[in-house]
Amino acid sequence: MPEPHTAVDEAVVDRTPADTFAAPIGITSAVPDTGRAEAEAAKRGIRRRMPKLTLKLASGLVLVVGITLFGIIAPFFTQSPTFSGNPSLQPPSADHWLGTTKLGYDVFAQLAQGTRGSLLIGIVAGSIALVLSVLFGVLAGYLGNWSDEILSLVTNIMLVIPGLPLVMVIATYVPGRSWLLVAIVLGITAWAGPAVVLRAQSRSLRAREYVAASRVAGERAHRVILVEILPNLLPLLTAQFLFAIIFAILGEAGLSYLGLGPTGSITWGTMLNDAQTGQAIGTGAWWWFVPPGLMIALLGAGLSLINFSIDEIINPKLRIAPEYTRRVRKAAREGRGVAVEGSIA
Amino acid sequence: MNQPTASLEARNLVKEFRLRNGLKFSTLQAVKDVSFTLEAGRTIALVGESGSGKSTIARMIAKLETPTSGDILLDGSPSGTRGRALAAYRGDVQMVFQDPFASLNPFHSIEHHLERPIRIHHPELSRAEVRDRVLSLLERVRLTPATQFAERRPHELSGGQRQRVAIARALAPGARFIVADEPVSMLDVSIRLGVLNLLAALQREERLGVLYITHDLATARHFSDEILVMYRGEIVERGPADAVILDPQHDYTKRLLEAAADPERLGALRDEVRSAG
């Protein structure tokens, strides 16, 4: 038998109490200037997607922005990094802030130029990896069927080829290696891992009803991908981009250390290679190898810290965890703790 | 809009899914030879349990799935499957999805959701005209003040308000037929009737043809002219709404009616559950 409530008058179409209750406060007041309201709404939307400024994020940003500015500005104020007229193997002094190398190069000038070189390689390689992983991952995930099989096959092949040996093989075959070539080689060996993650994620997004709804509305495939799916992948893409930069800079340092780095340009890796061939450790010239090594470590740490903050947007559980531990600890201190060693879900 | 011949017809629809289990393949017949005709201004309710194939029919009519065989005819002629013909079909046939929390993209504003279908199906309109239409759509689904709802994001709206947006989106291209796939099953009981009545009022105003998919016999009777009962991919019973409810013929319909909550039988149900446990 039909339920009795179906007898309610059909003409009553107005808001039900639940809907009225959900209407936000302030709507009843006079309509404000729409232009300003729109700008505010846009700002609110963007801010919602930004990570909260925590100590973690702030220190990461300071490190990365500081190193980037150093790489951009410092080379204009130092002497030429390839000027060899200085006395060789001088420890740090007022004239040479970070001393000189065996060939009489100023280490500070080299570091400034090397920062620029390493960052360029990192950003170019990261961008290449990002574009390729989006192309293979998102398309495979969205299109499905045969396109998915083919794109996944290529991804999986790239995934199982060990990256560094391949890079070494390519690097040894090419005689004059510019920094751009090294960046491209690093980029095309780094995209497979992120592509697998993106494929899985976009397969899941593709099955969401709002994607089906936009298809029913008549959106074309490229617009569905660019407007409906990609924005929801943004945090993930940012994290992957930053990680690809770290990977490329470390990869370049490794290659250069093996003598397979870019010829004719200065990076942190080539500085380390020079220090090694110049027996910097044997002669105790710490000022030669410590600065580039430290820069790599600091940039890696800075980018990772930013990445952690982005991770907290993707996975809100991570955001709750520290707060939760703090609360448990506080409760324990006040003598109303649940357990001595609180575990976090 | 008031053509007497306006109709959306499903003729001998069949949908088979190929399932893979290791190296073995098997075929699942989700929909077996289903036919019905939906006329402008009328509502057909498609009732059945989960997995009976009713949502597959909805997705086939919304052209999200391709039928294995059979045809979907709009105004008597076969409907387009790609390109311009498909776009024209989508201008006439739209869908309201089940879950209002999933069917709106959290990244975009309400205005974006309504503006896109208008832009796609009416590229000749200017920016201001599109905006006017968006606002009037919001007013038609009783989301006022429209300017404020337009710039909000889905997460700032309640479930009932979101489903109203979804209905407005389906109306945006100027659709004549709407497939509503369990449009109120994810909403609180208290606001279901409001959304259903809104749909009914809009239907009367525009002479829409509505295919109402549900598992709730009570709202099906309240809301529709004709009821089709589906069981395992087949239509086992069909007829005018009251006839099907008051005088069920098929065993499955009878069981469905018995399973529906009935205040007079609540005690019996409790005893049954307790004695079984």
TrEMBL record, chain A:
<feature type="transmembrane region" description="Helical">
    <location>
        <begin position="229"/>
        <end position="250"/>
    </location>
</feature>
<dbReference type="InterPro" id="IPR000515">
    <property type="entry name" value="MetI-like"/>
</dbReference>
<feature type="transmembrane region" description="Helical">
    <location>
        <begin position="150"/>
        <end position="173"/>
    </location>
</feature>
<dbReference type="InterPro" id="IPR050366">
    <property type="entry name" value="BP-dependent_transpt_permease"/>
</dbReference>
<feature type="transmembrane region" description="Helical">
    <location>
        <begin position="119"/>
        <end position="143"/>
    </location>
</feature>
<keyword id="KW-1133">Transmembrane helix</keyword>
<keyword id="KW-0472">Membrane</keyword>
<keyword id="KW-1003">Cell membrane</keyword>
<protein>
    <submittedName>
        <fullName>Peptide/nickel transport system permease protein</fullName>
    </submittedName>
</protein>
<dbReference type="InterPro" id="IPR035906">
    <property type="entry name" value="MetI-like_sf"/>
</dbReference>
<feature type="transmembrane region" description="Helical">
    <location>
        <begin position="179"/>
        <end position="198"/>
    </location>
</feature>
<comment type="similarity">
    <text>Belongs to the binding-protein-dependent transport system permease family.</text>
</comment>
<dbReference type="GO" id="GO:0071916">
    <property type="term" value="F:dipeptide transmembrane transporter activity"/>
</dbReference>
<feature type="transmembrane region" description="Helical">
    <location>
        <begin position="53"/>
        <end position="77"/>
    </location>
</feature>
<dbReference type="GO" id="GO:0005886">
    <property type="term" value="C:plasma membrane"/>
</dbReference>
<keyword id="KW-0813">Transport</keyword>
<dbReference type="Pfam" id="PF00528">
    <property type="entry name" value="BPD_transp_1"/>
</dbReference>
<keyword id="KW-0812">Transmembrane</keyword>
<feature type="transmembrane region" description="Helical">
    <location>
        <begin position="286"/>
        <end position="310"/>
    </location>
</feature>
<feature type="domain" description="ABC transmembrane type-1">
    <location>
        <begin position="115"/>
        <end position="307"/>
    </location>
</feature>
Automatic annotation (TrEMBL), chain B:
<dbReference type="GO" id="GO:0005524">
    <property type="term" value="F:ATP binding"/>
</dbReference>
<dbReference type="InterPro" id="IPR003439">
    <property type="entry name" value="ABC_transporter-like_ATP-bd"/>
</dbReference>
<dbReference type="InterPro" id="IPR017871">
    <property type="entry name" value="ABC_transporter-like_CS"/>
</dbReference>
<dbReference type="InterPro" id="IPR003593">
    <property type="entry name" value="AAA+_ATPase"/>
</dbReference>
<feature type="domain" description="ABC transporter">
    <location>
        <begin position="8"/>
        <end position="257"/>
    </location>
</feature>
<dbReference type="InterPro" id="IPR050319">
    <property type="entry name" value="ABC_transp_ATP-bind"/>
</dbReference>
<keyword id="KW-0547">Nucleotide-binding</keyword>
<protein>
    <submittedName>
        <fullName>Peptide/nickel transport system ATP-binding protein</fullName>
    </submittedName>
</protein>
<keyword id="KW-0067">ATP-binding</keyword>
<dbReference type="Pfam" id="PF00005">
    <property type="entry name" value="ABC_tran"/>
</dbReference>
<dbReference type="GO" id="GO:0016887">
    <property type="term" value="F:ATP hydrolysis activity"/>
</dbReference>
<dbReference type="InterPro" id="IPR027417">
    <property type="entry name" value="P-loop_NTPase"/>
</dbReference>
<keyword id="KW-0813">Transport</keyword>
<dbReference type="GO" id="GO:0055085">
    <property type="term" value="P:transmembrane transport"/>
</dbReference>
